[in-house]
Amino acid sequence: MANSPSQNRSRSKGRVTLSDVASMAGVSSMTVSRALNDPERVSEQVRDRVREAVEALGYIPNRAARSLAGQRSYSIAVVIPSVSNAVFSNVIKGIYDVCSARGYEMLMGNTYYSVQQESSLIAKFLTHHPDGIIVTGLNMADSARTLLQGAGIPVVQLMEVGESEPIDLNVGISHRDAGAAMARYMLDKGYRHIGVLGAQMDHRAQRRIQGFIDVLAAAGRYDERRIVATPEPSTVRLGGLLLGDLLAAAPDTDAVFCINDDLAYGVIYECQRRHIRIPQQLAVAGFNDLEASSCINPSLTSVSTPLYEMGKTAADMLMRRLNGEHIEQPVVDLGFKLQARDSA
Amino acid sequence: MANSPSQNRSRSKGRVTLSDVASMAGVSSMTVSRALNDPERVSEQVRDRVREAVEALGYIPNRAARSLAGQRSYSIAVVIPSVSNAVFSNVIKGIYDVCSARGYEMLMGNTYYSVQQESSLIAKFLTHHPDGIIVTGLNMADSARTLLQGAGIPVVQLMEVGESEPIDLNVGISHRDAGAAMARYMLDKGYRHIGVLGAQMDHRAQRRIQGFIDVLAAAGRYDERRIVATPEPSTVRLGGLLLGDLLAAAPDTDAVFCINDDLAYGVIYECQRRHIRIPQQLAVAGFNDLEASSCINPSLTSVSTPLYEMGKTAADMLMRRLNGEHIEQPVVDLGFKLQARDSA
After folding, report:
1. Which tens digits make up the pLDDT trace of A169-210?
2. Whole-angstrom distance, CA of residue B43 vs CA of residue B37
3. Which of A75, A143, A269 is the closest to B297 by Cβ?
4. Exposure winner among B54, B66, B107, B110, fewest CB in 10 A?
């Protein structure tokens, strides 16, 4: 290391060892080890002395050694498409709250919506021997599926249910049904020239649009000019741009379903700029029902998805499995709720 | 384990071992180990056979064993206040992009804005022997500081600079200076009855408000009735509620600085509902310049903070240290930019 001494305050002291703790506490290393791992076997007085020395020195027990000795690693790997998307932030929080309360750490991986990236992340994570792994969705590469089947740990597939057979445990909603429910709602409200705006177009976005289009088609209301979708990442700004494309292609559009709330916010802002009245001239709906959707003007009709609950349930299922519990229902459909508000 | 056989598809096969790979490849376990850890020492033909067997079986090399043998753990611990806040999502993405490109995993911890929680998280993380740790801010408990000083790994303190001496490496901005810059901007624009809305009131929010108030006071414009702050978590809805409180206490307020953009969005929506014209009747400014701030109506004046860049720089500094590089500048102030738009 070429660092100057002043930069290396934290390194110059070296790692605090078990024997440093032992000499400060005035006991043997064996006694320190016993006090930490099997506290019932030492006196309260010794426990206190060891605890004081551990705190004073900042001693860190060696988790890697315990992990090799066949004990748990107390870590859970979580593989999601995007760490910066508000949808996954809520899911992560649900996972995190359960894991941290049980003393588990979370290893986080970001697939950037790529199945190749997902496979290599899963391979890399498994070398850390997490006690369990949570991955996103049912649609994955065969190599990832093989790895997960052979890993010998509980696997939860998160976010969607019903599209295919899960590897092990599975919690989510049916995105196809949710899209279909929104199409039926809009048709029931009397809209007849209904558009769809999509971005990112990951597996679940595609399912939502498919469910939506199937219902429109069955009602004789499907018009491909009104389906505007891009693989670009979803942003608020993009919602306004896609609305411009839709209205250029099909000016008589009277309603638009955005495959997420971010796009819908952008559509609302763009309508304000163009003086398009919502819902009188154009009805707008989103998906996920983020926190701001009930506050924006007009308030946004959206599909409320149990994001936090999905994360929490996935982590709960892992924890129950790790406790040796039998899981009666390995596939959990948490359902969704169409939240009707002023915009549509 | 009490699970039924059908639930245990992934467990029933057991963990794939080195000797499974060896027998499939038709070589000794020693040769497999060599092919994986020291590939130059075996023939290309053997490497290919081992690689095929590894892929077919989904074999996972034992990272815990390597970690104990004194090699790196290839993990970085990241301790942040909130995993679901958009501000930290962007920071995390910056850290993640650097770490994952270098083959490092990220252990994520959430302090829920509590210094006690932060200390215990740091202690827990260090038992995993990450190669480096990134923590949030300069304000931490003495016990956490002691642990980090004794950990023998690089430590980056992220988000703020200039408030106190860092433990090791440090990257961020001066929140006090940023608050002061916004106050000067509003005074220069001619606003005279300026309010402040704050939520969460963590260390950095307090610094922003302090910098803002100091400038108001120096200009003879400080009025404590106009400072409305709550320890509640920040949401868009809360922005509207706090605006109601402010206008009830001080109806002649002509401008309001919100300590983050979420609160400012809520203020804009509430002004729309109350038919308060922005900026003619009330100027509104935010902080962080999130993606939607340039799209909302009116577009939001905010302080642009280099969130992604902070995360990226923190991870870069750690990686350079781990490569044995000397870091000339252990404290990096990335600065901020006042982004003037229509709202103020």
Report:
1. 999 999 999 999 999 999 999 999 999 999 999 999 999 999
2. 14
3. A269
4. B66
